[in-house]
Design brief:
The structure holds two protein chains of two kinds. By secondary structure, chain A is of the alpha/beta class. Chain A contains three helices and five strands. Chain A has helices at about 20-40, 55-70, 85-90, and strands at about 1-10, 10-20, 45-55, 75-80, 100. The model of chain A has no long low-confidence stretch (mean pLDDT about 95). Helix content of chain B is about 30%, strand content about 30%. In chain B, β4 and β5 (about 130-140) form a beta hairpin. Chain B has a five-stranded antiparallel beta sheet, with helices on one face. Chain B is built from four helices and five strands. Chain B has helices at about 20-30, 40-60, 95, 110-120; strands at about 5-15, 65-75, 80-85, 120-130, 130-140. Chain B is of the alpha+beta class. Classes of the chains: A alpha/beta, B alpha+beta. Chains A and B meet through α1, α2 and α3 of A and α1, α2 and α4 of B.
């Protein structure tokens, strides 16, 4: 589990990896938030292509970042969402808050 | 009359968040004998993760206590999972089960019970304030061709 951060032309990309649960979410959140506060991007892309598992802690992670980005009118995009995470993302109504781009089955 | 389980496992562990992944893995390893589909296994792992996280975040909010996880297999490919704690209990179970209701703060989505309810076939929550909570959930696994009894 971890995150790799890249900034390009006003867009911050967070490449997430591994299993996102309550245990791991805190560290991810702190790393992403530090970069978001430093760069104040107009778009934050959370790339889920490397995520093998996620529970509602991952939903909390997306919603919390959405709230933060909204402070300056920034947007959040959930990219490369593996098919197995679709059910949870639909249940949580994430599509009402941000753009969700479906991906292929992950590296798992 | 209660039918007896075909197989059963029980494990208990302290409510440290590092054990969330352990609980998921333990249930998945035990359920493997039923040869569940990838989707079924993913549903079960997610529901277990929610139940155990609830114990850690809510039942034992400022302390570490014991979580007991019991998994039973019944006739008809029924997997019954029980997650028990001796924590603070829930005053109003109905309210706690409402989607988006949370006392866990900004970073919690308030979806734990909603996930358990929609990812499993049955969910029952009993709680006694000051004594603890017991979450019982059941998943009926589909029969797979070539893997019949």
């Amino acid at each position: 589990m971890g995150v790799q951060l890249q900034m390009k032309q006003g867009e911050l990309i967070a490449l997430l990896d591994g299993e996102i649960d309550h245990h791991g979410a805190r560290e991810l959140r702190e790393e992403i938030d530090a970069a978001v506060q430093r760069t104040k991007p107009r778009l934050l892309t959370l790339d889920f292509s490397g995520v093998q598992f996620m529970d509602s802690s991952g939903v909390g992670l997306i919603m919390g970042r959405y709230r933060m980005m909204s402070e300056w009118g920034g947007e959040v995009c959930v990219a490369n969402l593996p098919p197995r995470l679709e059910k949870l993302v639909s249940l949580a109504g994430i599509r009402e808050l941000c753009t969700v781009i479906s991906g292929k089955e992950g590296k798992a | 009359m209660r039918t007896s389980a075909i197989n059963e496992m029980k494990v208990s562990f302290p409510s440290a968040s590092a054990n969330e992944s352990f609980a998921r893995a333990a249930v998945a390893a035990f359920a493997a004998q039923l040869d569940p589909t990838v989707d079924e296994l993913s549903d079960v792992r997610t529901a277990v993760s929610e139940a155990v996280t609830n114990c850690i975040v809510h039942a034992y909010r400022d302390t570490i206590g014991e979580i007991t996880l019991t998994v039973r297999i019944y006739e008809g490919r029924r997997l019954v999972i029980q997650v028990k704690d001796k924590g603070c209990g829930i005053e109003d179970v109905e309210k706690a089960m409402e989607p988006l209701f949370t006392t866990g703060g900004e970073e919690r989505a308030g979806l734990g019970f909603a996930v358990m309810e929609s990812f499993m076939n049955r969910l029952r929550v009993t709680s006694h304030p000051g004594k603890g909570t017991c979450v019982t959930m059941e998943k009926r696994l589909s029969g797979r061709s070539g893997h019949g009894r």
